[in-house]
Amino acid sequence: METLAMHISNGIIDGPVAAVFAAVALVAMTFCVLRGRSDLDDRLAPMAGLVAAFIFAVQMLNFPIFTAGVSGHLLGGALAAMLVGPWVGALCVAVVLVVQALVFGDGGVAMLGLNITNMAVLGTAAAYLLIALLLRVLPRTPTGLGVTAFVSALFSVVVAAMGFVGQYWLGGTTDLGGNLGGLAGTMAGVHLLIGVGEGLITATTVVTVAKVRPDLVYALRALKPAAPAPVPAVGGVR
Amino acid sequence: MRKRSWGFVVGGLLVALLLAGVVSNFASSHPDGLDSSLREGCTFDAEDNITGGTCPARAEREHEIGGPLADYGISGVDNEFLSTGLSGVLGVLLTFAVAGGAFWLVRRRGSDAGGAAGGAPDAAADGRQRAGTAG
Fold this sequence. Notes:
The complex is a heterodimer.
Chain A: H1 15-36, H2 44-59, E1 63-64, E2 71-72, H3 77-84, H4 86-103, H5 112-137, H6 142-171, H7 180-212, H8 218-222
Chain B: H1 2-21, H2 33-38, E1 42-44, E2 50-53, H3 80-106, H4 121-134
Antiparallel strand pairs in B: 1-2
Helix pairs in contact in B: 1-3
């Protein structure tokens, strides 16, 4: 039988730690709704729905990572942050995780807070920090945009994976005999390779959207280059 | 402008449906990065049951809900291609409905100014109009 669970399953992290992270995730998502509302206008709302649906679809596409018997799949934080911004982007990933846990039996319902914290909060936040930095220094070309997407996506996957290692340190249910470093090393190594896949998918998608409808790429609207733009932008400067 | 945005969204949805409905059948069935890391230290038989060793995956418990779409298939549909594809299509539509619906409900309407997105006067006016008609 093929293994189709992609997220933290029940029993992997103990109940109290899972509950703490459920609270963390709830607070973070509430904050994202409050901050994201100012981004969410009539145009961004359907786009954000699409981004969530797209992430759901691409998460189903496990790709091989050239290590025997291991696959990877998109997490989506960087993609969402690029296209709809960090606040709404984190919410998009969270909605995907909720649907997967409640309807597709993927990721324990009790583990939802852990999964949301890793992929929606840490992944998206890490990605957006790099996006904000890189888009200001790299040229506004498809290459510059692609490199930004690739690097931030790769970074976000490794950060999300380390989030899990931290959670396992706090509440892992199997005694690793002090060998948490081994788990950390395996997770980091595997997710570095998965990050390459995530980077390629994110860069391809973002560059494609930017070619068709550059106005629908949040990062291009919100983040102005370091040098003053030749044409004064109409509003939207942060 | 708004019409064309909707056009883009519909086009994007079609791509997502194609990916989840068809391409998903060609996805790798190996355990993903998390799962494989948790399985380190254990041995498995062909049915993926643990046959020996110690590893975090041993502590795994049943999912609370499961449900007819559990594990990205439709229970009762024997054709694996159809089962995976249909569950993917349903998942994409459901995710779009839940996310799109929720975002549409909490979106900024009319006069709350100060968004990073667009912020053009016509968009704001458009928002006011919509809010008015939606009640």
